[in-house]
Amino acid sequence: MLKDGFSRTIDYMRISVTDRCNLRCIYCMPHDIKPVEFKNILTYEEIIRIVRVSVKLGVRKIRLTGGEPLARKNIQYLVKRLKEIEGIEELSMTTNGILLKRYAHELKEAGLDRLNISIDSLDKDKYREITRGGSLERVLQGMELAHSLGISPIKVNTVIIRGVNDSEIEGFAGFTLENPYHVRFIEFMPGKGNHWSKEDVVGIEEIKDRIQERFGVLEPVKRKKTGPSEDFRIKGAQGIVGFIGAVTHGFCKSCNRLRLTADGMLRPCLFSKSMIDLRSPLRNGATDEDIERLLQCAVDIKPQGHTIGVDDDRGSIDLPMSKIGG
Ligand code: SAM
Ligand code: SF4
Prior knowledge:
Elements: E1 12-16, H1 44-56, E2 61-65, H2 75-83, E3 90-95, H3 100-110, E4 114-118, H4 124-131, H5 136-148, E5 154-160, H6 169-178, E6 182-187, H7 204-215, E7 219-220, E8 230-233, E9 240-244, E10 257-260, E11 265-267, E12 276-277, H8 279-283, H9 288-300, H10 321-324
Parallel strand pairs: 1-2, 1-10, 2-3, 3-4, 4-5, 5-6, 6-9
Antiparallel strand pairs: 7-8, 8-9, 10-11, 11-12
Helix pairs in contact: 1-9, 2-3, 3-5, 6-7
The chain binds S-adenosylmethionine (SAM) and iron/sulfur cluster.
Iron/sulfur cluster binds at residues 21, 23-25, 28-29, 66-68, 96, 118, 321-322.
């Protein structure tokens, strides 16, 4: 079992399968970003090997992210192969959903358990503005299809930024009345090139207050605590609203994850610059035991928490979110 220096059990790995994306969200991806060279992107076989070794050490959940995971060719092959690894209890993906209508059937067949879909506006023009060109209609169609195929529950990730989409908080919460989705409000985090400032962050307490003002007292939803989201339900609603206080509530205490970037760097924390190179050892004959040692090393240097937002700290964020794999 992987235990860090603060008694947290690490059983979850987020894998960025590509740093490339078919959108350019204003808060995530600078439009002039230089992509990682293809030769430095981990192959599927390399990712599968890392996961096999991680599972031996106790990793049980895998999330594929990016960049845009559906933009990587034949991603359904990776889903299928990872799903076949004994010991994986949950395989999920975070996607912008633009290509979901095309891939939903294959993802379901390949064994994908869960989906998070990022939608930051329910207004098609605003959506296009935030994503610099995306089609909301395509995403909603993909989401409905995935839901009808039984990929459940579908979670909608919504990053709220003051002056950009905070006028839609009630609209997103209201979306759960008639729809069985989980809408998760995420605080805006700093990333390289995204011009973050503390004033732009709409804290989850403010979001919650506004929702309660409109819809009445939220009912807490009890669930196995496996992530940073605090979940509630509007009385009588089909779906759930969740709150991820990435900045104001330091979700670090229960952090159970490691991140693997598309170019094979193990990142113990979203906000730490320290990374452990797995790609070079993998390509230079490392044994499984060598990889195990490197995984343990990444866990050993996992910091207790981040200080983003404290005293105006922008953090030591050195990469855009699309490169880290948010
Ligand atoms: N392209 C996929 C998508 O958009 O879902 C997966 C990668 S994206 C980097 C993963 C998640 O990170 C998305 O839900 C996105 O909204 C979130 N994200 C990106 N930049 C962020 C930021 N600065 N603050 C908070 N969340 C952010
Ligand atoms: Fe692409 Fe996702 Fe970043 Fe938007 S949030 S630019 S969809 S990686």
